[in-house]
Design brief:
heterodimer; A: mainly alpha; Arp2/3 complex 21 kDa subunit ARPC3; B: alpha+beta; 2 domains; six-stranded antiparallel β-barrel; 30% helix; rod-shaped
Chain lengths: 174, 370
């Protein structure tokens, strides 16, 4: 469970990363997401851009940079998709980046368990926003929840715990 | 507002970024009929305001037009009434002109039908002040070579004759229904002769027709030409009613010409018989010449008339009757006429008898002009 001891900002550490690492990791995540789709349907269970958005948003704990990072990653993800209007993933990931950075300032997101839970929740929040936007804007009945989505959220959360440990190495030493 | 935005900067930025992306989506997404979502939204945002503005403006316009602007209505109403009066006058003027044109057209048609007969168009410029005298004045006189005893006709039938040439441009016409008027007549069907005499009212009478003669209302009466005033074959009118009398039938005649509404007439400058102009087409189809309205060719028998020789009187035949003023002349020439009352014009030579068949067969050529 995520620890709720972050009541004061002084107890929450703001991490900084090497120059260009955020851009490089985000680009790599998008590239891998597009690349892995060539190898079957199982990569659909994994949402690497969502993990990157969540990780950097929660680590840097700055809502402004979090929402902009989410917006850029989401719009690029839309651009790499086929037939999907540009902006759907952008809206969803903007909100995820904002929420993640807001949560990161209040909750300890360094623990693997809390990371797993938060990624799991963010995945479904991301899906809810996406489904709502598609229903409202496109008149498409996108489902809010399904077993496949549940499986995807678990896979993504588990993979997130692993990948976040790797990404922690990109932090500048405090 | 700016203070609120700067205080909640992240939230404001979030809203701005989301709004920008929603707009981006709205530009891309198309709904029914290939209309972009942004257009739908724009219409949905704008139209309620436009509808409200239109409603308000229409109400304001109603109030303005219904109350405020009514102070002009009175003046406008008066102006429109004035225009209406002017239009009515103009309409009456045009109707008069149209009627005149129609009359002149029929007169012209009559003239063109008989191009060899000299005619003179004239206008009625006045009438007699004496109610018992049925005369009218024409705007033609001595200058136009109008002479006494010239026939006056219309396309609808004969009118009367010139009794006085009063000035260079004025002459007086004795109408058919004047009590001093008399015209030699014959039935178009039976060719029975008689004399149409004025009675002083609108309906003249046909006299000197014996009781044995079958006369029915509607029988057509033509000029016989015996009076030497009216050429033979002109329409006088129709029988309105007939009753046995002593010694002759009492027959009232409805004149063809509307003697109470005369405006334009034709003066026949000669007593030459009216023979209509023949066209090649009409000659090829029938040898019975066409006649203008109100004129029955002398050579054309009525449908009910038996085929008969031309009854046209030879040149120089004595006039049967014209009017009281010419009675003496008529009587002088009517040697075979039965005894008549002194005041009555002499009957035609065979007034009480059916004349020999009056018209040539339909295939016969038209009667030669006298």
């Amino acid at each position: 469970m995520p620890s709720l001891d972050a009541q004061s900002d002084s107890k929450v550490e703001v991490h900084k990363y090497y120059r260009g690492s955020v851009i490089a990791v985000s680009f790599l995540a998008l590239l891998l997401q597009a690349f892995l789709h060539k190898y079957g349907r199982w990569p659909e269970l994994l949402d690497l851009p969502l993990l990157v958005t969540f990780y950097f948003g929660a680590s840097r704990r700055n809502p402004v940079s979090g929402l902009f990072l989410g917006a850029v990653i989401g719009i690029l993800q839309d651009a790499l998709s086929h037939g999907r209007p540009i902006g759907l993933y952008g809206i969803a990931k903007t909100l995820v980046g904002y929420v993640a950075s807001s949560i990161g300032g209040r909750i300890d997101t360094e623990e693997p368990t809390s990371r797993f839970v938060l990624v799991f929740l963010c995945f479904h929040f991301h899906q809810a926003v996406l489904a709502t936007a598609q229903r409202v804007l496109l008149n498409r009945s996108e489902s809010f929840f399904s077993l496949r989505l549940l499986l995807g959220s678990l896979v993504t959360a588990a993979f997130g715990v692993l990948i976040f440990a790797l990404l922690d190495r990109l932090r500048k030493p405090s | 507002m700016l203070d609120l935005i700067s205080r909640h900067r992240p939230l404001s930025l979030l809203a701005g970024v989301l709004f920008a992306q929603i707009l981006l989506l709205a530009f891309q997404i198309k709904r029914e009929h290939d209309v972009r979502l942004i257009r739908y939204w724009a219409a949905e945002i704008v139209t309620p305001g436009e509808r409200a503005a239109t409603w308000v403006l229409s109400r304001v316009g109603d109030v303005w037009n219904g109350y405020v602007a009514l102070h002009r209505a009175r003046a406008e109403n008066e102006r429109l009434r004035g225009e209406l009066d002017q239009m009515r006058l103009r309409n009456a003027e045009l109707e008069t002109q149209a009627g005149e044109a129609q009359r002149l057209r029929s007169l012209l048609g009559l003239r063109e039908t008989y191009p060899e007969v000299p005619m003179l168009a004239a206008q009625v410029i006045g009438a007699s002040a004496d109610p018992s005298s049925h005369t009218v004045f024409l705007n033609r006189g001595e200058r136009d070579h109008v002479r006494r005893n010239m026939a006056v006709i219309t396309p609808d039938g004969i009118v009367g004759k010139i009794v006085e040439v009063l000035a260079n441009n004025t002459s007086q016409v004795l109408l058919l229904n004047d009590k001093d008027s008399g015209v030699g007549a014959l039935f178009a069907g039976t060719r029975t002769h008689g004399v149409v005499k004025g009675t002083g009212d609108f309906s003249p009478r046909l006299e000197y027709v014996v009781n044995d003669e079958k006369v029915r209302p509607g029988d057509v009466l033509l000029t016989s030409g015996d009076d030497r005033i009216f050429p033979k074959g002109l329409l006088i009118g129709t029988v309105s009613d007939a009753a046995p009398g002593n010694p002759f039938q009492v027959i009232h005649v409805q004149t063809g010409a509307r003697l109470d509404r005369l405006e334009d007439v034709l003066i026949l400058l000669s007593q030459q018989e009216l023979v209509p102009k023949q066209t090649e087409a009409s000659t090829a189809q029938t040898e019975v010449p066409a006649a203008a309205p109100g004129v029955v060719p002398a050579s054309a028998p009525a449908a009910t008339a038996p085929a008969s020789p031309n009854p046209a009187s030879p040149p120089g035949a004595k006039p049967a009757a014209s009017d009281a003023r010419s009675n003496s002349a008529s009587r002088a020439g009517a040697n075979t006429a039965p005894k008549q009352p002194a005041s009555a014009p002499a009957p035609p030579a065979s007034a009480s008898h059916t004349r020999p068949p009056a018209a040539p067969p339909a295939s016969a050529p038209p009667a030669p002009q006298r």
